[in-house]
Write a structure and sequence with these properties.
- The complex is a heterodimer of chains A (344) and B (284).
- Chain A is of the alpha+beta class and 344 residues long.
- Chain A contains ten helices and eleven strands.
- Chain B has helices at 16-43, 100-110, 153-156, 174-180, 190-198, 266-270, 274-283; strands spanning 51-52, 58-65, 71-78, 84-92, 117-128, 131-135, 143-148, 160-172, 204-208, 214-221, 238-248, 251-263.
- Classes of the chains: A alpha+beta (344), B alpha+beta (284).
- At the A-B interface, helix 1, helix 2, helix 3, helix 4 and helix 10 of A face helix 1 and helix 5 of B.
- Chain B: The chain crosses the membrane at residues 25-42.
- Chain B: Keywords: Membrane, Transmembrane, Transmembrane helix.
- Chain A: It is a multi-pass membrane protein.
- Chain A: It is found in: Membrane.
């Protein structure tokens, strides 16, 4: 949203967020390494580092992937969402340590380049049990790398939100690669069922959260608005929308947010230009519709971000008749001024 | 949620209801993190007791032989009749390389053959489960001295034919398995083991008997030729070997017969139904 970019716009909340990430990582690594050293005095540093970083990264990946559905189910999780990219970059750094030490240990100092060795040592690509699992981890690392280096809003704007979002949706492919990397690798070595049980619990938790959140949204979208009049659709009563808040209506597969602000109703497209956040779940602050995901703002009367920012969304006509809200789902061009509908 | 409470990340503080909720979540998350750290750390397989004396160079005197794999025979005390005991110390190179290249360079540089000579070598020891190996690195100038052997070489070269046998086990690279890496076996180590063996480190068959005790066998081709390249597809997986077994002092060498190296499936052997066989094939 910024007219210019700084590396990271630090504020108190971000500092707290990052300190918590750092502290939790230290707690996990210290717990794992110290207990391994105590109960496995024959341990080697490299192996403990590879194992502690890998398990920590998988844990963080589960946390990252759960934040999206959690915020859909409960808005109190929004503080986790706002700085999720910090968590992602942290996870990438941890995975990089895991991957770098893995390649150093298993593929360096040989008779071929370590990266050639990675793909040519074990060539059982046609086997499930013998599959070269390290290659899967490598491709997941590449995806996480691309996500980490493009995590800044600078890249979001230069790549365009659509391409950026598509790229970052590859996190689900990366998750699948990570799961297979674990299942076809260390799970085949360790005899304790704890490892496979934890991976299954993790996967089930993530799938369940996504399904529940998705079903909740799908139920909202399925509401039919049958009462129509001159292109307008009856959507709700005036009192159903709280002051400075909105209700979201899905008409003809488009989500539209109808906001109440200073005795008027305004309708804008529900999707934020930043990362596709649900504008209708936001709030009007300082006269601007504020996206709940990252705080991007738009003026209710024209769907434009206040100067000097340039984001714009579609606007719609809305009218009030007998305390009933009628919405015309035909969009105006992004940033088109609309007068809004008087409530009284 | 109260209507006036709305979270925005770029504000200095989160609304109280949000921060209270997140604190509860973080408490649960921290509990999970600690529990997982404890559980995963304690659930790992025990690390092997192998040792690699990284950074420590030791001088070892013995008789060098290049066949069946490069070794030095080192005096290890005397038996009850006063005869000298010898242990066999296989030689390996730096990184994922065999010792052949280092030995060849020394022989070329000194213009001598080390075969059956008494040599003093400087290198890094690694050992586990009664086996001792030595890494020699050209950068360490490993040859300290070389002289004609003062003992009867024929005694050291005595072998004992054990006959042809079928034996099941896992092919490992001895350098990692006996000390450099933990684990130095199994699927996680498969790529490394392959790279080590392709680099010239002699492959070793690890066999676990019914009591859980492990025995180790050096593997060469039917005529004593190296078969490092041929075992690539069989490393770190259950295999069965049809071989002629020969005892060289404290090591047994398997001379693998033609087509004598095969993948082995416990399931296929013990559950010979068509369904299981098909499933096993699919998995393979």
């Amino acid at each position: 949203m910024g007219a210019s970019y700084s590396a990271v716009g630090w504020n108190r909340q971000k500092k707290i967020y990052d300190w918590i990430i750092f502290s939790f990582c230290v707690v996990y690594l210290a717990t794992f390494i110290v207990l391994t050293a105590i109960f496995n005095p024959d341990y080697t540093f490299e192996t403990v580092l590879i194992r502690s970083t890998s398990t920590l990264a998988v844990l963080i990946l589960h946390v990252i992937l759960s934040i999206g559905p959690l915020t859909r189910l409960n808005k109190k999780f929004f503080p986790l969402l706002y700085n999720r990219r910090h968590l992602g970059v942290t996870m990438f750094c941890i995975i990089l340590v895991h991957g770098a030490f893995g390649i150093l240990q298993f593929h360096s100092l040989g008779n071929v380049n370590p990266f050639v060795s990675l793909f040519t040592s074990n060539t059982h690509y046609d086997s499930i049990a013998d599959f070269p699992f390290q290659a899967l981890g490598f491709f997941a690392l590449i995806i996480f790398f691309l996500m980490a280096i493009t995590s800044h809003d600078f890249w979001l704007h230069n790549l365009s939100p659509k391409i950026w979002k598509t790229l970052h949706m590859f996190v689900y492919l990366a998750y699948f690669l990570v799961v297979m990397h674990v299942m076809l690798g260390v799970i085949q070595y360790e005899t304790n069922p704890v490892f496979i049980i934890i991976m299954i619990i993790g996967a089930i938790t993530l799938i369940s959260l996504h399904l529940v959140a998705g079903l909740k949204e799908a139920r909202k979208d399925k509401i039919n608005y049958n009462l129509k009049e001159e292109g307008f659709v009856f959507v709700c009563g005036v009192t159903e929308i709280e002051e400075s808040r909105a209700k979201i209506f899905c008409i003809d597969k488009e989500r539209i947010a109808v906001y109440k602000h200073e005795d008027k109703l305004y309708a804008i497209h529900n999707v934020c230009k930043h990362q596709g956040g649900p504008l209708g779940e936001g709030k009007i602050i300082d006269g601007c519709i504020t996206c709940p995901w990252h705080g991007y703002q738009y003026l209710p009367q024209n769907g434009q971000s206040p100067p000097p920012f340039k984001e714009m969304v579609n606007t719609y006509d809305v009218k009030v008749k007998d305390n009933k809200v009628w919405l015309n789902p035909m969009p105006y061009a992004e940033g088109t001024e609309r007068p809004g509908a008087n409530i009284r | 949620m109260q209507n006036d409470e709305f979270y925005i990340g770029w504000m200095q503080e989160a609304p109280k209801s949000f921060s209270a909720w997140i604190k509860k979540y973080l408490f649960v998350l921290l509990t999970i993190i600690i529990m997982l750290g404890v559980l995963l750390a304690l659930s790992q397989k025990k690390f092997d007791s192998g040792n690699f004396e990284f950074g420590k160079l030791t001088e070892v005197k013995g008789i060098y032989f290049s066949k069946p794999v490069p070794v030095i025979k080192v005096i290890d005390g005397k038996d009850i009749w006063g005869n000298e005991n010898y242990i066999t110390v296989p030689l390996i190179g730096f990184g994922k390389h065999g010792a052949d290249g280092v030995i060849a360079d020394i022989e070329k540089e000194k213009n001598i053959s080390l075969e059956a000579k008494e040599v003093t070598l400087k290198g890094t020891l690694l050992y586990n489960d009664g086996k001792l190996l030595m890494q020699i690195d050209a950068n360490d100038e490993p040859l300290i001295s070389v002289a004609d052997a003062a003992i009867n070489i024929a005694d050291l070269q005595k072998i004992k034919q054990l006959g042809t046998t079928d034996i099941k086990g896992e092919i490992v690279d001895p350098k990692c398995f006996f000390g450099v890496m933990k684990p130095g076996e199994g699927k996680p180590h498969k790529d490394c083991a392959i790279r080590c063996i392709l680099g010239g480190i002699p492959p070793v068959l690890k066999v676990t008997n019914e009591e859980g005790r492990q025995n180790y066998y050096l593997i060469v081709g039917a005529d004593g030729e190296k078969m490092n390249d041929m075992v690539q597809d069989y490393v770190a997986a259950p295999v069965t070997i049809h071989a002629n077994a020969v005892e060289y002092g404290d090591w047994i060498v398997l001379y693998v017969q033609q087509n004598g190296l095969q993948h082995y499936s416990y399931i296929q052997e013990h559950y010979n139904s068509a369904y299981v066989a098909c499933s096993a094939n699919c998995l393979k």
